[in-house]
Amino acid sequence: MRFEKAIAGIAMALAVAGASAAEAVVYTMTNETDMNRVIAFALRPRGKLVELGRFETGGTGTGGGLGNQSALALDASDRWMFVVNPGDGSLTSFRLQPEGLQFVSRVPSGGFSPVSVTVFGTLVYVLNEGDPGDPAGSPDNISGFRFDTGGVLVPIPDSTRPLSQPLTDPAQIGFNKSGSVLLITEKATNALTTYVVQPDGTPAPTSLTRPSAVPTPFGFEFGDRDFVFVTEANGGGRGVVAVYRIDRATGAVSDLVDRIDLGNATCWTVLNNDQTIGYATNTGSGTVSIYRIGFGGTVDPFFKRRPNRHVAAGSRPLDAVLSQNNQHFFTLNAGNGEIRSFRVERSGALKRQAGVAVPVSSSGLLAR
Prior knowledge:
By secondary structure, the protein is mainly beta. It has one helix at 2-19, and strands spanning 24-29, 37-43, 49-56, 72-74, 80-85, 90-97, 100-108, 113-120, 123-129, 141-147, 153-155, 161-162, 170-175, 181-186, 191-196, 208-211, 217-222, 227-232, 238-245, 258-264, 266-271, 277-282, 287-293, 299-301, 311-312, 317-322, 328-333, 338-344, 350-357, 363-367. It has a single domain, classed as Methylamine Dehydrogenase, Chain H (7 Propeller). The protein contains 1 helix and 30 strands. The longest helix is centred in the first third of the chain and has 18 residues, at 2-19.
């Protein structure tokens, strides 16, 4: 027994010691009903992901798909991580350490079931899905927190706000680049809802809502010049990435700037660092689409001669993320419980590499 513990300790020490030499570290949450955990993986040469550890959030998951994006978030300093616990209505903060994650705090999320979280400065906002059995008593909402110098989460008074209807099947919440607006995608109402963030950190008393260009708005990423790139899954049919512009003063979402048709059930998109190339997962097609981005927010096929070409990703890819150096791309595949890694070629094309198993209930994907 002592020998086995010693061997396990040596293996963990070797994994930790090698973490700093990894090309990237990737995180997902398990969303399991007994205990929600964050799994950390180090990326080795040739795309191999090696597990570094599993870190308990103190909360629970639902054990199934969430229909969401951004279940985990990092602050800009890469010192703090925030994780939703959909099973018990709580939010957890971690401190990032060389050896993994250190639990800091867990607080009620301000709603029934948190599915998405976003960070700007010391502000943290969570998107809560309501209780289908009691929509009047526990409707969809957003709720705000601040974290102190130790990473402890503190609720912001008078920061809870409703969405456009009691139950909207919401997917994601996110700050724009300036931190002045919060955007929420509502799948069931086919709507984009925004709140202006006031100087005290609370949302404005009322929101603005506009219909999405295509049904089922899902994930999104903000770019510079107030553009936002939204995946619209079209009820599982042929999805798009739709581009809008958001007024940072009023929160108003513009008419459609441009759109590009992609695969079936397009669910998530990420942009490279200079925002000239975007990547989107097509959950229904099991593929990743690549597109080019113009200065004015226009979007065009990446492969000029084969505009409908997609990259095979695996079974039901949902979340996606680029490493911070933009040299690696990852998808979380819900169909077979896998994180798949890709090498990003100099041109922006993807070369498929190794995969690693995770629980099929896993949700959210981060890389640094």
